[in-house]
């Protein structure tokens, strides 16, 4: 099995960090959360997303977040204690 190409993900991260100027805030009811293999998954119900100009409400949203690792770094090496 071939390793996935990381360049598109890195390009997206760089573009979001340097080109996107709009900030969103969100508020909802936490339905479920879990942490497996340094990947957080959150399920939120009745969530409202707000920007400077828009407000959007959704019934259910899933947010997945994982830690960024540098090439050659072992899993969990970049994790920080809360």
Structural notes for this entry:
- By secondary structure, the chain is an alpha+beta fold.
- The model has no long low-confidence stretch (mean pLDDT 81).
- Helix content is 16%, strand content 44%.
- A hairpin with a 4-residue loop joins β2 (39-50) and β3.
- It contains 1 helix and 3 strands.
- It has a domain at 22-66: TATA box binding Protein, subunit D, domain 2 (Roll).
Describe the secondary-structure layout.
Elements: H1 7-19, E1 25-36, E2 39-50, E3 55-66
Task: Give a summary of the structure in a few sentences.
With 82 residues, this protein is of the alpha+beta class. It has one helix at residues 7-19, and strands spanning 25-36, 39-50, 55-66.
Low-confidence stretches: none
Radius of gyration: 16 Å
Straight-line distance between termini: 35 Å
- Biggest sheet: strand arrangement: 1-2-3
CATH homology group of the domain at 22-66? Transcription factor IIA (TFIIA), beta-barrel domain
* Average pLDDT over all residues: 81
Largest sheet: 3 strands, antiparallel
Number of strands: 3
Q: Class by helix and strand content?
A: alpha+beta
Strand residue content: 35-45%
